Amino acid sequence: MFSDLFPIISTVVIAHFLALISPGPDFLMVVRSALRNTRRRAVGVSLGIALANGIYIVLCVIGVGSAIAHSLWLMVTLKIIGGCFLLYIAYHALKARRHDYAFLIQNQDESRLQNAPSFWKEFWLGMGSGLSNPKNIIFYLSLFSVVLTPESGMMLSVGLGIWMTLLVFVWDTMIIFVLSQKRVRQTFSKIAFYIDKIAGLLLGFVGYKLLQTAAKEIA
After folding, report:
1. pLDDT recorded at residue 127
2. What's the rounded Cα separation, in Å, for the pair 70 and 141?
3. CA 157 to CA 61: how far, in whole Å?
4. Which of 112, 121, 110 is nearest to 35 (CA)?
5. N or C terminus of the chain with fewer C-beta within 10 Å?
6. How many angstroms separate the CA atoms of 180 and 48, rounded?
7. Cα separation of 65 and 61, whole Å?
8. Ramachandran angles phi, psi of 63, nearest 5°
9. Burial category of 33 from C-beta neighbours within 10 Å (exposed 0-12, middle 13-18, buried 19 and up)
10. What average pLDDT is seen over the chain?
11. Is the pLDDT of residue 110 over 50?
């Protein structure tokens, strides 16, 4: 039985990992949070993104994901909300000034804490980032269309869903831990202002394209 399902499992795991390591809005959110916050608070973003992915995975497993993906108005609504959210993040990234990044080169934890958003604020930003990308639900729907066959049981889908959710959290948290290292932070502190601006431009572009696509679909 396992030997029959192994090719399917391998394909899904590899496809998910390749998609995970490719830069996208979620990756940009993780990098921004890691450079702008303490490590503990930045983990809130990775937790939020992972739970958002978990929500989409559950929807795909129970069949709701298919209904959303095939509903024009639901997809348009998701794109509009996602586009507005990403433009909001881009706006705050682009309006930030150089002195907003001064805490990166300061050693006092108190100074860093005063400048850092709360864990839960970062968590909701991560959740919003994960849910705002309609490509996520389409991606998971395509993956589970391979897994959900008469030969494979529900336990396989549940197991893969848990694995993928945990992998998202572990991968994003690993990025945060790498970027929060003292030497890495000192290096990035010199270019954090520009990284944030580039991330803001990219997130804004993605948000604009989402709104543009939504407008075309309802025209």
Report:
1. 92
2. 11
3. 7
4. 112
5. C
6. 19
7. 8
8. 100, -10
9. buried
10. 79
11. no
Q: What is the pLDDT of residue 194?
A: 79
* pLDDT tens-digit map of 151-161: 666 777 788 88
Rounded CA separation 99/156 (Å): 50
Note the pLDDT of residue 147: 66
- 15, two tokens: 């496809």
- Per this entry, what is the length of the chain? 219
Query: Residue 189 is encoded by which pair of tokens?
Result: 């502190």
**Three state DSSP letters for 73-113:** HHHHHHHHHHHHHHHHHHHHHHHCCHHHHHHHHCCCHHHHH
Enumerate long-range contacts of 26-29, CB under 8 Å, 24 or more apart: 26/126, 26/129, 26/130, 26/133, 26/172, 27/175, 28/199, 28/202, 28/203, 29/89, 29/125, 29/126, 29/129, 29/203
